[in-house]
Amino acid sequence: MESSSTRSPLQERLYDIIFGFDSVAGRRFDLVLIVLILSSVLVVLLDSVSSIPLHYHRYFFWLEMLFTLFFTVEYLVRIYCSPKPREYILSFYGVIDFLSIVPVYLSFFFPAAQGMLLLRILRFFRILRVLRLMRYLSEANLLMRSLKASRRKILIFMVAICALTLIYGSLMYAVEGPENGFTSIPKSVYWAIVTITTVGYGDISPATPLGQALASLVMITGFAIISVPTGIVTAELANEMRKERSSLMCNHCERGGHDRNAKFCKHCGVELEDDTLVELS
Amino acid sequence: MESSSTRSPLQERLYDIIFGFDSVAGRRFDLVLIVLILSSVLVVLLDSVSSIPLHYHRYFFWLEMLFTLFFTVEYLVRIYCSPKPREYILSFYGVIDFLSIVPVYLSFFFPAAQGMLLLRILRFFRILRVLRLMRYLSEANLLMRSLKASRRKILIFMVAICALTLIYGSLMYAVEGPENGFTSIPKSVYWAIVTITTVGYGDISPATPLGQALASLVMITGFAIISVPTGIVTAELANEMRKERSSLMCNHCERGGHDRNAKFCKHCGVELEDDTLVELS
Amino acid sequence: MESSSTRSPLQERLYDIIFGFDSVAGRRFDLVLIVLILSSVLVVLLDSVSSIPLHYHRYFFWLEMLFTLFFTVEYLVRIYCSPKPREYILSFYGVIDFLSIVPVYLSFFFPAAQGMLLLRILRFFRILRVLRLMRYLSEANLLMRSLKASRRKILIFMVAICALTLIYGSLMYAVEGPENGFTSIPKSVYWAIVTITTVGYGDISPATPLGQALASLVMITGFAIISVPTGIVTAELANEMRKERSSLMCNHCERGGHDRNAKFCKHCGVELEDDTLVELS
Amino acid sequence: MESSSTRSPLQERLYDIIFGFDSVAGRRFDLVLIVLILSSVLVVLLDSVSSIPLHYHRYFFWLEMLFTLFFTVEYLVRIYCSPKPREYILSFYGVIDFLSIVPVYLSFFFPAAQGMLLLRILRFFRILRVLRLMRYLSEANLLMRSLKASRRKILIFMVAICALTLIYGSLMYAVEGPENGFTSIPKSVYWAIVTITTVGYGDISPATPLGQALASLVMITGFAIISVPTGIVTAELANEMRKERSSLMCNHCERGGHDRNAKFCKHCGVELEDDTLVELS
Fold first, then answer.
1. Do B124 and B62 reside in the same domain of the chain?
2. What stretches pass through the bilayer (chains A, B, C, D) (predicted)?
């Protein structure tokens, strides 16, 4: 938050509004931004529905232009008022902000290209900008910390799942064969993933008794395996919640583990006021 | 429970029977009510089955009239005997009580209207009245408290899921396109929700190898993500159960929720000795 | 285990073999019984496969007769050697034992009746007899205790799920209507159950945009709700496991919480031998 | 790690590189191995896609030969440098290493045999070799320990699930019958497994009202049951994580796993003071 000495008061003020969330103006700006992002996403959604009459699509086009213009101005102001513009541009949210406006401008130059469609999808990454505003909620931080703490365990689990689906998929390819829809090993691996995650589209499903027996084994494995990521996240989350609860320390006897609504220290009996109960980290 | 001084003994007596659950009469009334609500729901269910011969539907009609009459009388008596009628009418269960009788009366005036059907569905909200009786069960309260405590975390999680399905859905729209059933972005988002929640109808499913690879990613993400709400609820529930178990009450201020190792009451500050800290149940 | 004074040594001996699991003979009998039950179930399974040539079915018939004969003898011996025959006959496993042999005898008298098929399915309850042998495993007891402790919570949850599926199902019936497969409210409720449990057959699936939006809501609700029973069982199970761990008491200082492999009391330092470490319950 | 006295320095050096992971060379070797294993799996995957032009398959063949040659050399070197070759060959990973090379050599002698396909699938077990490298990650060990600790509970649960699906499957066979796709009891059991694990392909689904009611029961049972393995793994995982966190070591006998409130070492009985109980990490 330390600003360089050359920053103008306008920059300071804009920074507070756009990046901050303490001031009234900052919170109002956040609210307007959320509404605009959601409206813009809604327009992109509706624009893709071909059953909507053609003349509506023209309105959608102009709305999209308007939103993009606003987001462009916002992006430039963010660069202008940021104390470290370079850092902002290269940050996760800086890249998202850029990617969500650039496809519209590019579509002027390459209007009908095939690859354009995928590029235009990038506009959808706007929705990720909503996540930025959730940073301020302590619950979101708790969830993020739990997920971060279980990151490596989940990764190892994913590697094990991939190995398992490869083996199950190739076995099914050998057992059922192309005549029952298992046309190649990659497709059989796709089937194994569909099955082990308990999604079960039914676009490919075993037809032979042996295949159905093997599929039953895959399903029961999946049933048991589904418990592992849940176990990981639950254990980490319980851990994080326990930490949060016990991070309030009595300033008098310097012992922790107080509830947030406690009025007296349960260890030394001193009355707990706002300056006596200290949050640890 | 404080009644206004102008209430008649009849009102008091009816209040005990209809709202209370301590007296024998009150519990009998609750039982009769549950049977009537479930019967009425059964009649509505059967009434919608077109394969049942026509003359049965006439019986269903008269049964429905009878149930509605009873529920109307009950509703009026509830208003009559409630100490604060206004509060009851505007309460969650007051509105449910009203909504579950009004469609039948409205159907006399607008018998064949199209919107009528949706209105008649409101009769089904009767089933929610059963939930009212579950309030008295301590387990239901424990569950409700856990869900309430995890409310904000689940909401944040839902927002993240929505953002994710929007991005996955639009990517799939770009990859698979209308020729494989992904006719619009909203429909693709519907597919993403069907997939990430592991429901997997199979009414829309990816046909191209790239689409299947992307779908596999969506499924594995869903598999990992399914663990988050479970983790939240489990951690909160374990927390609530632990609290309930340790319902140690301070004998001085008669407030509970103390830890077993507490030396001073956190509410009134009195020193907790073996005879001051009373275990509740 | 207290036997009546009039029991013969043969009864005692048979009781130890058939009901007990301490002696070598008792454990051998259990093993033979498991093999026979599983073989008998396998024969019933294969007997239902119509693609197996007809002359095999004759073998299956004779095998089935043989198994039934053995199970009948076993049932009679169980009655003979049980100290309280009446109690055994009326117990859960006594009824199962009876139901798994009677259909075969009945099929002689009413060979081709339609209701016979359902009756013959009763033979399958034999498989439940395997569960009896799992009683002796402490892990099975731990699981049963956890499930028993969470019984009421799960029941309340089930009632809530039923109310929810009734409401969602009737809403879908109003939105989608018979032309999209939602032919009656009971069928729509069936769809809601298929969806909320994330099974998702796809035999009925929403076709209108409004229906798909409502279905998305149902799925996301189901996604959040799936966490509740898991949370209940996990919290109870963690509780039971904690209890089991902390139920070893040092006989010297009479304080608990020891690990089963502890060699010295962590509170008073006394050496823990088999007679010092006492299991509490 | 104790090597026999007759081992040459070359054997020692190779052992460090191939089996070890402490030296720089050892870690580089592991990295090369992972890349080769994954490339080899990719080649097998692509080789099965019939839409890839024929002349590519010739390249795949030669790549496969190359990989197999490398893995063969690696296998022989592993035997050569292992201090106990016999033990390595018969170990889990030794068998995997052997099975992943032998099918390629066998395919020279029996080129077009039908059973060959299944044998060639064995090449896929190569992917399991990646798991070997995960042993060194403490998170993987934690997960493995939790799964090992819950092994017996999960097994009992699986037996209960099998009994349940047998009963539900045979009931459905009696209710729905062959005309609705439930052609035999084994197939109905397959349907019950598909349903209870919430996979729900929809290749077989109930058509009669009674069948749909029974299926609803199966699904709701499955919904409640899905919580049991999750509960088991979560409780064990939380337990293991708690143990790991409290890795307090007795300074006297240098063994860990003490509780923070322990006053005496549970292994050697020495009194634990602040300087005796050392936190490990």
1. yes
2. 31-53, 59-77, 154-175, 213-235
Give the separation between CA B93 and CA B54, rounded to whole angstroms. 35
Res. B116 pLDDT band, cuts 50 70 90: low
Q: Are residues B171 and B104 in the same domain?
A: no
Contact B216 A193 (CB under 8 A): yes
Give the pLDDT mean for B124-132: 77
Q: Which parts of chain C have pLDDT scores under 50?
A: 1-4, 281
Q: Is the minimum CB–CB distance between D38 and chain A shorter than 8 Å?
A: no
Whether residues D194 and D222 share a domain: the answer is yes
For the domain that residue B220 is a member of, what is the CATH number? 1.10.287.70
pLDDT > 60? residue A35: yes
Regarding whether B104 and B16 lie in a shared domain, the answer is yes
For residue B233, tell me if it sits in a domain: no
Q: Does D78 share its domain with D125?
A: yes
Indicate yes or no: CB of B268 within 8 angstroms of CB of A263: yes
Does ipTM exceed 0.90?
no
Helices marked H in A82-208: 85-90, 92-99, 102-109, 114-121, 128-134, 138-149, 151-176, 185-196
**Is residue A160 domain-shared with residue A192, that is, in the same domain?**
yes
Which residues in A lie closer than 8 A to residue B248 (C-beta atoms)? Answer: none
Based on the domain organization, do C221 and C276 belong to the same domain? Answer: no
Which of C73, C105, C135 is the C-terminal boundary of a domain? Answer: C135
Q: What is the pLDDT of residues D5-19, one digit of tens each?
A: 577 888 888 888 888
B3-17: per-residue pLDDT in tens?
445 778 888 888 888
**Best residue in B182, B240, B266, B276 for a mutation probing chain A (most A CBs within 10 Å):** B266
pLDDT at A187: 92
Q: Which helix (H) or strand (E) holds D278?
A: strand D277-279
Cβ-based burial of D236 (10 A; exposed 0-12, middle 13-18, buried ≥19): buried
The average pLDDT across B75-91 equals: 90
Q: Domain residues for C257?
A: 245-281
DSSP structure string for C191-231: HHHHHHTT----SS---SHHHHHHHHHHHHHHHHHTHHHHH
The amino acid at A35: V
Q: Does B39 touch chain C (CB under 8 A)?
A: no
Average confidence score pLDDT of chain B: 81
Q: Is D85 touching C (CB cutoff 8 A)?
A: no
Chain D residues closer than 8 Å to A159 by CB: 130-131, 134
Q: C142 lies in a domain?
A: no
Q: Which tens digit of pLDDT belongs to each residue from A158-202?
A: 888 888 898 899 889 888 888 898 998 899 999 999 999 889 998
- Cβ <8 Å between A184 and D139: no
Give how many domains chain C has, as a whole number. 3
CA distance readout (Å), B47 to B40, B130, B243: 10, 21, 47
Q: Exposed e or buried b for every residue in A76-108, given b needs 16+ CB within 10 A?
A: eebeebbbeeeebeeeeebebbbbbbbbbeebe
Residue B103 in domain: yes
Please give the pLDDT value at position C7.
Answer: 80
Instruction: Tell whether A200 is within 8 A of chain C (Cβ).
Output: yes
Compare all CA atoms of chain A with the CA of C195 and give the residue at the minimum distance.
A199
B143 assigned to some structural domain: no
Spell out which residues of chain C touch residue B143, defining contact as CB-CB under 8 Å.
153, 156-157, 228, 232
Strands C248-250 vs A248-250: parallel, antiparallel or unpaired = unpaired
| CATH number of the domain residue B13 falls in | 1.20.120.350
Q: Do C174 and B49 touch (CB under 8 A)?
A: no
CB B17 within 8 A of CB B6: no
Give Cα separations from B100 to A197, B44, B62, B110 (angstroms).
Answer: 40, 12, 16, 17
Q: pLDDT digits over D118-163, tens only? A: 667 777 778 887 777 776 677 777 788 888 888 888 888 888 888 8
Whether the CB of A246 is below 8 Å from some CB of chain B: the reply is: no
* D124 and D14 in a common domain: yes
Is D197 near chain B, with CB under 8 Å? no
